[in-house]
Design goal:
Length: 233
């Protein structure tokens, strides 16, 4: 999942942070996509700290909740599709604990987005960025609010999909073996609806299409085979 090559960056709150080469490649592609002017280049470069901060705090939300519940420290990994919080505790999480850990990341993202919105409004008197600092706050607001909401969609293995699976384990105690299959079905239906909406309201790019194919493959596998409880978020 996280690749064989990784660089240790630093340690924060007891959690070790790593980065893979693929993360740098994806960030460069996102930053320089569609850049034609110096102004667009500056805005593109702003995505780098915004994404780094947003992903780091999102994953630390997972890691800290896991630590609070007694599972010890985690590894935070910057990889090709964003970030992961990987916990190596041998103790199995209960469904309620898994839901709490799953939703902690989106909660941090939404909180960060709300704080950025308040800071932007206090700085500019509106939500229109007047300069580069305003643009930074605008991106922090928009990307973190989007990422928080998007991650709560019931698409496995995103946070909402993992929370959905854990919720199904609670309500389907006598049919727990059916939970992976039902989780996969819900995920694929949601994925199709999101892609349908995006094709009309947005302009899906290569990254979005790759993400959809990746999630689709995971959920087809989940429906056919099921899988063990994940230790990453």
């Amino acid at each position: 999942m996280n690749g064989s090559t990784k660089w240790r960056l630093f340690k924060v709150l007891g959690h070790t942070v790593y980065m893979t080469p693929m993360f740098l490649l994806i960030m460069a592609l996102l930053a320089f996509q569609g850049v034609n002017t110096a102004q667009q280049l500056l805005i593109g470069l702003l995505y780098l700290p915004v994404l780094f901060i947003g992903i780091l705090l999102h994953e630390l939300g997972h890691a800290q909740m896991s630590k609070k519940l007694g599972f010890g420290s985690s590894e935070v990994m910057f990889w090709g599709l964003g970030g992961l919080a990987i916990n190596h505790s041998a103790r199995r999480r209960t469904p309620k604990e898994s839901i709490a850990v799953s939703l902690a990341g989106p909660a941090v993202s939404l909180g960060l987005g709300a704080l950025s919105a308040a800071a932007l409004y206090g700085y500019a008197g509106s939500f229109s960025p007047p300069d580069m600092l305003g643009q930074f706050l605008y991106l922090m607001m928009g990307l973190n609010l989007f990422w928080g909401v998007f991650n709560m969609l019931p698409i496995y293995p995103m946070d909402g999909g993992q929370a959905t699976r854990s919720f199904l384990e609670i309500v389907m105690k006598k049919r727990r073996r059916d939970v992976p299959r039902l989780t996969g079905i819900i995920s694929i239906v949601t994925l199709v609806l999101v892609l349908g909406f995006a094709s009309f309201a947005l302009r899906p790019d290569i990254f979005m299409l790759f993400l959809a194919l990746y999630f689709g493959w995971i959920n087809v596998k989940l429906i056919r085979q099921g899988d063990a409880q994940m230790r990453w978020y």
